[in-house]
Amino acid sequence: MASVRIPCQVALAESCYRLLLLTYPAHFRRTYGYEMAQTFRAWCRETLRAERNLGLLRLCGLTLSDLIATSLKEHGRSLLHRLKQLLGVMAPGGLEYLALAVPLRLQVARYTDIGCNSYYGFALKAALEAHNYDLWAASLGRMGLLLLSSAQPQQTLMLLEEAQDAPIQSAKIHSWHAAIEAEAYSYLGNSSACKKALERAKDTSEATFSETDIYATGFTRARLASYEGSCYLRLNQPEHALPVLEQALTLIDPTAIRRLSRLLTYLGETHIRLGSERQAYEYASQALDLTYQTQSLDILRHVRKLRDGFLTRGESSYTKDLDRRIEEIQAVIATVGRFHG
Amino acid sequence: MGQKAREPEAMLPLTPAVFHILLALADGEKHGYGIMKEVSQRTGGSMRMGPGTLYGSIGRMLASGLIEATDERPNSEMDDERRRYYRLTEFGLRVARAESRRLDQLLQVARTKHVLSPQGGF
Fold this sequence. Notes:
B: alpha+beta
């Protein structure tokens, strides 16, 4: 490299300029600081050669005013950029970062009846933004189940259809979608389509169930049996529903009390249809015990349905007892609601 | 989810500094000081950008894809120091053309209203 002598006036001006570069935001200084100093030095050298000291002085004045104006401008931009990062969704790709929080939100939605729609809607958007198709399909499945609970099986099927061509990696999610599809067909009373979907859901290896459930599908062997039982129940085949629901009861994690209470209501309903009221009452009663803890309005609705079943069969003692306990739970839920409200 | 083709008109109007930098790079790549010199010479010294204005504009132009940086290399005509060079992108050229057309239309209006004589004088 040829050595070029730097005049002392230029060296002094450059030293001052390097110091003044500290007024710029750090990221700007790191990116362009070196080039700016290099450019300033070359400019000073040529100006000194052409216009002597007076020209150099003018240049320093011009550079100083430029530095004040542009350093304020860059700080403004830097502040705006940070604000956008803080607001997350406003920044391009912000949803991608927020997608990292989606599995947690899915878990929250799993344990509460409130705000599920917004959780799942958000999850779908964030997962697509992040090109995370497994997360997207998990959110789609949860959304499909929510639609089923509000008796919209056609919409559920449409959602599941969307996922069919997506590059979903998880075998667990594939099987889970098939089980939800079976549920949707059972709501529509389409027995053959329901059974085909159930076969697809069951045609899976043990590895599927041991796969880590990072997107909170909650799909286990017990869950599959529970889906199958509820399908038979809806298809008015309680004799087929009973063995699979009993199998689900032996497999289910006893700490999963929301799911357990739902399973108990299925068993209660099956026994009513099979004419064994005493057992139906036992299951309804156990479901209510759990509802004191879960305070799930959904389960309460199902127990009321069972109570109506007893009523039509003239079982007034069971009806009376269930009515009393339903009222008690409603009072507890109302108190908690007032406390939180 | 295909990316939309960007319209150069969406970038208009350009700031004087950005348009001057685009014009300076229209006939080949240059380093920062090369751009400054070219702008100053072409405008007869009336447009003098300081390093802050130059690199602030360069940063935004790189981010919006108007220009791109090439590898650093020495400049034997100056001091042999390694410098980063910048060049126009295809999109940058389209934006420069669109801005030129916009300014040309403005000049036509100025001529029609006799603010500017047909020869360009006042």
